[in-house]
Every structure is written in structure tokens, then in C-alpha cells.
């Protein structure tokens, strides 16, 4: 079986339909094995014999919309993609904390260009990781202008993406091995 992590867009932890047991139930109902949720923000690890990731994304999103009313988007990464990303040590010497966020923005399709953050922006692009289809950034969270981060990415790439902290990506990878 193949190991996957699904990162769901538009999850609100306060909505009871989006909590672990309901999300897990949708995935288990689709026949996936070793389903486990991570945090209350739309992260699900699971196993499947299927290797067609776009078909899996579509199947999951249809079920989430039909069963839980979650209209966002589903982006899946394989265990190998996440392991390669973590092994590349993209944030060498940096620590995620209250003042500095290390973020990973997963996209469905490779972009033609990297979003243009304005001069003096609290966002620093580390790199675009092609194997994981992910933009790696560092956000200075002490700057109140960080609220424009998602708008800048959406303007450049549309809404078919989702952002997680690097810590969440690392936790998803560990959960796959549990």
C-alpha cells in the first residue's frame, strides 16, 4: 500500500463537521486504510493501493463536499515527496516559533513564476520545491503586514493551493510511520 497525506483547503477547526472523527470516517468510507487525522486543520494521512493522485484528490473532494459540506480543495502528497522535502533541510538553521513561521504552500500544478512579494515584505521565499510542488517561505510574524501573505499567493496562483507550517508537514510524515 502507498502512504499519502491529504492537506485540505478551507478547514475551520471550529466547525464540528471538520473534526477528526468525521474526516476519518469519510476517508475510511472510501476504503482507505490506516486513516489518521493530524491537528484539527484538515490534515489526514492514509494508505491506498491507488497510485493515481489526481483521481484520489477528486474522489476525496467529492466525498468531503457531499458528506460534510467541505467545498475547499484536496491536495495530496506521497510519503516519498514529504520525506524528500524534509530531508532537503530547507530551513537549515531556522526555527519555527511565535515570531518566525516556516511555511509550506502546496499547489496542484507547477506555477510559471513565484509570487512577487513587495519590497520590505515580511515574507521571504526560501525556494520552490518542484518534487513536492510547494513554495517554502519564512514569515516574520512580528510584522502586522503578514495578513497579505495568502492574498499575494492567491493573486499569483489562484485558490488551488493550501499552506501549512513546516512543523505540520514534519508531523504528518511522522504520523505516516506510526
Automatic annotation (TrEMBL):
InterPro entries: DUF1697. Pfam families: DUF1697. It comes from the Bacteria. PANTHER family: BLL4334 PROTEIN, DUF1697 DOMAIN-CONTAINING PROTEIN. This is DUF1697 domain-containing protein.
